[in-house]
Design goal:
single chain, 97 residues, globular
Length: 97
């Protein structure tokens, strides 16, 4: 079976990793899909408990390129793996696929 690497994911561990870690991973963030960040409220709501922290980390420490959220990745994984059992996944069906 092929694998899917959707890139880095935002979470507590990533937010606490620090500038050295973020800098080392920046090349992957720069080329990942869904990464451009303009400070919009919709994206900030997805961050969890501390949107201002996310905003600062992304704008100052990550060059305005954000990580993905688990909710964004879950749909892709479901669409890909749902076909394993002969039908599309639940996410695919909810999206009208």
């Amino acid at each position: 079976m092929n694998t899917v690497n959707l890139g880095l994911v935002w979470g507590d561990m990533y937010s606490q990793a620090g500038k050295e870690f973020w800098k080392a991973n920046q090349p992957y963030v720069d080329v990942g899909p869904l990464m451009d960040y303009k400070g919009d409220e919709e994206t900030q709501r997805k961050t969890g408990a501390d949107p201002p922290n996310f905003d600062g980390i992304v704008k100052e420490g990550m060059g305005g390129r954000r990580l993905k959220f688990t909710s964004e990745i879950a749909g892709v994984v479901d669409a890909v793996l749902g076909g394993v059992h002969g039908r599309r996944g639940v996410w695919w069906e909810r999206m009208g696929g």
